[in-house]
Amino acid sequence: MRAYATNSAGTGYGPEATFTTLVDLPVVTTTAATAITKVSAVSGGEVTYDGGGTLTARGLAWSTTANPTIDGTVVLDSGTGISVFISNLTGLVLNTTYHVRAYATNSAGTAYGADERRFRDANLVDSCSALRDFGPAGPGALLLRGGLSAAQSRPPKGMIPGAALVHPPTFRRDTR
Fold first, then answer.
1. Mean pLDDT per segment of 10 residues, for the chain of length 176 residues?
2. What is the DSSP string of 88-115?
3. What is the pTM assigned to this prediction?
4. Among 1, 28, 85, 141, which residue carries the largest CB count within 10 Å?
5. Which positions ≥6 away from 9 have C-beta within 8 Å?
6. Domains present along the chain, CATH in parentheses
């Protein structure tokens, strides 16, 4: 770029000046977690604006605390540019709350989608199955395969420590 001036003697030019326009942060959204199992889930995001610069990374940041960042655990997506991406979260721990946020990075920095808080599918006691049983144990009873008599007061084997039943059901031994 150069400034110039024109008069009756002609046009004169000033020295050439150069500049570079700034790049914005990217814009990214987080996709809600799906296909949640005991140890994995699927989430992802969408980069809707690259900020005018080249994306150098995108993916999911996840943690057991709110607003995870790329300084913690991430799943790096191999794609580039403005598009939707899907990431698999693996190695999760049973009955744990996880937070996921999509992120995208360009020369201006890293931007994050909204924090998506997801609860793990606890399956507190795998050996329990809910009954809609109006028989001897009554409505809302739990059928325990492997047994717990109504006289026993401790929780079933395999129940996660610290788990509490809001309305403790009655228990009866499976006789099938």
1. 88 85 92 89 94 94 93 88 92 90 95 79 40 41 40 47 44 49
2. EEES--TT--EEEEEEEEETTEEEE---
3. 0.61
4. 28
5. none
6. 27-118 (2.60.40.10), 124-176 (no CATH)
